[in-house]
Design the sequence.
């Protein structure tokens, strides 16, 4: 097959929460970009996602906060928290982008640097070669961009999460609160997504056998129900009657906070954002929120260096390399300690499940005395700079 060449000034790899939000952040600054997504359609399946105040600030800066608030309910016992259906979040971000911003069926298989210009060159599985001036990797946990940048891979936390949505056609009748019920090495969370549906998750010790059969959703549901046998009937019924299409099992992986503190997430005109940089344990519900923050900060840093938009083509290649390189270094600096704190808190919180009482006490002290309390990070507004 003859190889074809294409050029896009800013290329984002990955059309998940972070890639779509980054494209939207740039679009709102008048900067055009293209998102390459390996799937043939948006990956908008799955259950709910808890969004804290810091995530809502980011969504407001992206201009979609009110649309999503209208589709979710305020949880009264945790400040700013709302649970949004993943489908609503992904669809809202995607629908706010100009037509043709997302290229589906583009699986990136290799990235190299042009020896003459020093700009990135992207190879797609179908043989196409795409040239770009700025490459942003929002390609999730197994990021090819992160590998190209030489970042360390994630570790496994020895826990797994099953999550799903359950619909109650006549209303669930629950209060607007986030329920956590701890058992023996088991944690169940339940939060209303709207008046008729409830998002839930069950965190357990990691079991490699469950991973082998994770595509058999009925088996996942039945095993989860069995693990909950000592829980109240209402909790068991919720899992038993979930919408099977929303069910998923995830082994929990995390980028070690101590690696994040010292990694360089930008090189030349290439960088990473979202899970590609900082996958975290979901117990603090900060992976998606911080991916949205990355998007806002990245768009702001790039737009400040490129006030005419890269499409103005006024800058020489050398000037472009320096300005974009500087913008990406500023983005990396601004995000570094924020994500170190979020991932440290997530790591400690995720480790609680299997920890002894002594370890739990030590974690509690670290949280409250050193890291500023369990929810202090949710007050952060990524747009205030
Ligand atoms: C069980 C669980 C519960 C969670 N709960 C919450 C929560 O309540 N609140 C919260 O804030 N966060 C939560 N998170 C974290 C959150 O889901 C993630 O942080 C977020 O989805 C990351 O988005 P992303 O866009 O960076 O990555 P992804 O969602 O993984 O998207 C990456 C995209 O890149 C594409 N891609 C990958 N490789 C390539 C390639 N080579 N070429 C082209 N495309 C590619 C993929 O197809 C995908 O669409 C949870 C995570 C888990 C596992």
Sequence:
């Amino acid at each position: 097959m003859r190889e074809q060449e294409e050029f896009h000034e800013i290329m984002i790899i990955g059309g998940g929460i972070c890639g779509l939000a980054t494209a939207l952040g740039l679009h709102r600054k008048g900067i055009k970009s293209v998102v390459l997504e390996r799937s043939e359609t948006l990956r908008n399946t799955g259950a709910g996602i808890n969004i804290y105040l810091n995530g809502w600030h980011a969504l407001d800066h992206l201009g979609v906060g009110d649309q999503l608030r209208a589709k979710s309910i305020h949880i009264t016992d945790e400040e700013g928290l709302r649970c949004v259906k993943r489908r609503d979040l992904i669809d809202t971000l995607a629908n706010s982008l100009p037509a043709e911003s997302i290229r589906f069926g583009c699986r990136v298989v290799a990235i190299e640097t042009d020896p003459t210009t020093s700009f990135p060159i992207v190879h797609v599985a179908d043989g196409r070669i795409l040239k770009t001036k700025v490459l942003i990797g929002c390609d999730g946990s197994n990021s090819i961009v992160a590998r190209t940048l030489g970042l360390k891979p994630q570790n496994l936390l020895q826990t797994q999460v099953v999550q799903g949505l359950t619909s109650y056609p006549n209303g669930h009748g629950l209060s607007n609160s986030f329920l956590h019920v701890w058992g023996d090495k088991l944690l169940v969370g339940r939060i209303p997504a709207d008046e008729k549906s409830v998002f839930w998750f069950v965190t357990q010790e990691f079991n490699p056998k469950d991973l082998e059969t994770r595509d058999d959703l009925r088996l996942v549901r039945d095993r989860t129900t069995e693990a909950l046998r000592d829980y109240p009937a209402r909790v068991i019924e919720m899992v038993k009657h979930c919408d099977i299409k929303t069910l998923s099992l995830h082994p929990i992986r995390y980028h070690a906070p101590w690696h994040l503190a010292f990694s360089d997430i930008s090189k030349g005109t290439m960088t990473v954002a979202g899970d590609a940089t900082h996958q975290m344990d979901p117990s603090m519900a900060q992976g998606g929120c911080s991916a949205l923050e990355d998007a806002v900060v990245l768009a702001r840093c790039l737009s400040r260096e490129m006030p005419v938009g890269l499409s103005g083509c006024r800058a020489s290649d050398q000037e472009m390399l320096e300005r974009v390189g500087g913008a990406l270094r500023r983005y990396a600096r601004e995000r570094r300690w924020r994500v170190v704190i979020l991932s440290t808190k997530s790591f400690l919180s995720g480790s609680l499940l299997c920890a002894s009482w002594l370890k739990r006490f030590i974690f509690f002290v670290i949280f409250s005395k050193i890291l500023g309390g369990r929810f202090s990070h949710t007050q952060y507004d990524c747009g205030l700079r």
In short: The two ends are 49 Å apart (CA to CA). The mean pLDDT is 91. Residues 166 and 243 are 6 Å apart (CA to CA).
